[in-house]
């Protein structure tokens, strides 16, 4: 069955088609959920919520643009809605700190470790970092998506980079001590 036919069948609540669509896209969308969630279990919950929203709103998809992109936007918005409901962004000091350059030496710091330390960032820093650095959204878009102002987005990105830089520097120091 073609993707277009699968989408059309999902629009009429065909549970078999919904299962196929889930199988087809769940691993990619789980990666998106994992990037924005605090841990694996929360990512699984977010994935389920995202698919419930996808199946509820699939009738709104008009076959314009990338279907996968549409799914990803719904997934990101579903996860971000959870954080908006938890008031993650309520207590924020908006003093903009100087932006930090973050350089990663792939020979010392693995991608898995980097993803782990990104996931350990405080929610407001992790969300802005992922939206800006990994998904390419502008500070204006991030501000609208998260219900914050542009200065807060910039400040949280700078703080995320600073935190990651410190964690990586500590990691490198430990690695060099262990190699002595």
From TrEMBL:
**All copies of domain RNA polymerase sigma factor 70 region 4 type, residue ranges:** 112-164
Q: Which domain of life is it from?
A: Bacteria
Annotated signal sequence is none
Q: Which residues form a coiled coil?
A: none
What name goes with this protein? RNA polymerase sigma factor
Reply yes or no: does the keyword Transmembrane helix apply. no
- Tell me the InterPro entries matching this sequence: RNA_pol_sigma-70-like (IPR039425), RNA_pol_sigma-70_dom (IPR014284), RNA_pol_sigma70_r2 (IPR007627), RNA_pol_sigma70_r4_t2 (IPR013249), RNA_pol_sigma_r2 (IPR013325), RNA_pol_sigma_r3/r4-like (IPR013324), WH-like_DNA-bd_sf (IPR036388)
Q: Which PANTHER family match?
A: RNA POLYMERASE ECF-TYPE SIGMA FACTO, RNA POLYMERASE SIGMA-70 FACTOR ECF SUBFAMILY
**Ranges for domain RNA polymerase sigma-70 region:** 21-87
UniProt xrefs under SUPFAM superfamilies: Sigma2 domain of RNA polymerase sigma factors (SSF88946), Sigma3 and sigma4 domains of RNA polymerase sigma factors (SSF88659)
Please provide the record's keywords in A-Z order.
Answer: Sigma factor, Transcription, Transcription regulation
What family classification does the UniProt entry report for this protein?
Belongs to the sigma-70 factor family. ECF subfamily.
Report whether Transcription shows up as a keyword of the record: yes
The protein's matches in NCBIfam families, at most eight in alphabetical order, are given as: sigma70-ECF
């Amino acid at each position: 069955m073609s993707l277009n036919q699968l989408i059309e069948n999902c629009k009429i609540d065909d549970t078999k088609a919904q299962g196929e669509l889930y199988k087809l896209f769940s691993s990619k969308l789980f990666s998106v959920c994992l990037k924005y969630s605090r841990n694996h279990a929360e990512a699984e919950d977010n994935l389920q919520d995202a698919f419930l929203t996808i199946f509820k709103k699939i009738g709104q998809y008009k076959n314009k643009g990338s279907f996968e992109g549409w799914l990803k936007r719904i997934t990101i918005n579903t996860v971000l809605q959870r954080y908006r409901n938890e008031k993650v962004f309520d207590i924020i000091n908006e003093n903009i700190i100087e932006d930090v350059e973050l350089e990663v030496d792939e020979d010392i710091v693995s991608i898995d470790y980097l993803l782990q330390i990104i996931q350990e960032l405080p929610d407001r820093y992790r969300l802005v970092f992922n939206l800006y650095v990994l998904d390419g959204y502008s500070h204006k878009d991030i501000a609208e998506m998260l219900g914050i102002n542009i200065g807060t987005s910039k400040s949280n990105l700078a703080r995320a980079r600073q935190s990651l830089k410190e964690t990586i520097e500590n990691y490198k120091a430990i690695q060099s001590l262990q190699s002595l």
